[in-house]
TrEMBL record:
This is Four helix bundle protein. It holds the Pfam family 23S_rRNA_IVP. InterPro entries: 23S_rRNA-intervening_sequence, 23S_rRNA_IVS_sf. Coiled coil: none annotated. Transmembrane segments: none annotated.
Amino acid sequence: MEENDSLVYKKAFNFSKRVVKLYDYLEREKKEYTLSKQVLRSGTSIGANIKEGKYAQSKKDFISKMSIALKEAGESEYWI
């Protein structure tokens, strides 16, 4: 993480670290594989899309990446 990263990216990054811990717990302790993979995929995708948006080639591209990040956040909320 870079010092000049946005607050929303920093929060998404920290969230993704917590999601990875949840994934490990669900797989190791609960033997839950389907749910854990879904939450891992959607939870770590939020920050990735925000980071991609930082380097968007146009305003339209930026809005698209932020929209995808928002959708992934909603999906993560559902799975959690």
